[in-house]
Each structure stands twice: as C-alpha cells, then as structure tokens.
Design a protein that fits this description.
- The chain is of the alpha+beta class.
- It has two domains: 37 residues; 80 residues, Alpha-Beta Plaits.
- The chain is built from four helices and four strands.
- Strands 2-3-1-4 form a four-stranded antiparallel β-sheet.
- Strand 2 and strand 3 form a beta hairpin.
- The longest helix is centred in the first third of the chain and has 19 residues.
- The termini are close together.
- The model has no long low-confidence stretch (mean pLDDT 92).
- Bound molecules: nickel (II) ion.
- The site of nickel (II) ion (NI) has 4 residues, from strand 2.
Length: 136
C-alpha cells in the first residue's frame, strides 16, 4: 500500500534533484525518491553484514598462467555463496566471468576481493544488491 508524505526542500536542492530525475529517466519524483531510499537501505544491509545478494564480474586474460584454475579454486572455497557462474570468451585473449552470489555480506566481499586481486584480472567489480525482502 502506498502512502503519501510531503517533503520540504531548498529551491536549489530541488532544482538539482529535478535535473537528476530527468538525467536518470525517472517519470516522477516519487519513483526517484523510492529508489534513493531503497539504495540507502541496501547499503545499510551490507554495512550490517546482513544476508545480501550481488554480482561479481571479472575480465581477465586467459593466457595468464594458472589464472582460470585459481579463479575456480577460490570459487570452490566459497561454493555455498555462489548461485551461478557464467563464463564468456570475449575474444582471442579475454574472458568475462559473471558470478551471482547470495549470502553474508562480509564473506561475499572477501570472495570478490580475492578474485579481483589475482594477477591477470584486468577489471573486477562487485555490484552489491539485496535479496530485497526488507525493501518492498
Ligand atoms: Ni574464456
């Protein structure tokens, strides 16, 4: 059920917010405010080491000695967190691996950091989200 409330903002801040809304393609202020609030709550779940979800992406050179083996070995050490892994051969040299994870925030961070730190990983990212059951 949706409830309405009103917000008072300084004119300049409201102008910036409206610019943000049109840049991001929101249809109205309410949807933008809802997303900002949810984003803040997702961040809080990560900070409180709650049950969260995320996506780890890795781009790496598969010619780097033993790199694929190391990535796989780390994933086996944290297998309870991993929902699925997709490997894409991007071109002759580069691979993209996308790992969907769910579990305790600190362990997911640990898993992501270990893989991203490996030599030969050119780009690594952890996108933090939440299973969402606190975020209706
Ligand atoms: Ni590949």
């Amino acid at each position: 059920m949706l409830k309405r409330f009103s917000i008072s903002l300084e004119e300049q801040l409201l102008e910036r917010f409206d610019a943000y809304i049109s840049e991001h393609g929101y249809v109205n202020r309410s949807e933008a405010v809802r997303d900002l609030i949810r984003k803040e709550f997702v961040g809080a779940e990560w900070e409180q080491d709650g049950e969260v979800a995320g996506v780890i992406t890795l781009v790496f050179n598969h010619h780097q000695a033993l790199l694929q083996e190391k990535i796989t070995e780390i994933q086996h050490d944290y297998y309870t967190l991993i929902t699925s892994t997709t490997h894409v051969h991007m071109d002759h040299d580069n691979c993209l691996e996308v790992i969907i994870v769910k579990g305790q925030a600190s362990l997911i961070r640990e898993l992501a950091e270990k893989m991203i730190a490996l030599r030969g990983v050119k780009n690594g990212n952890l996108t933090m989200t939440s299973t969402g059951h606190h975020l209706h």
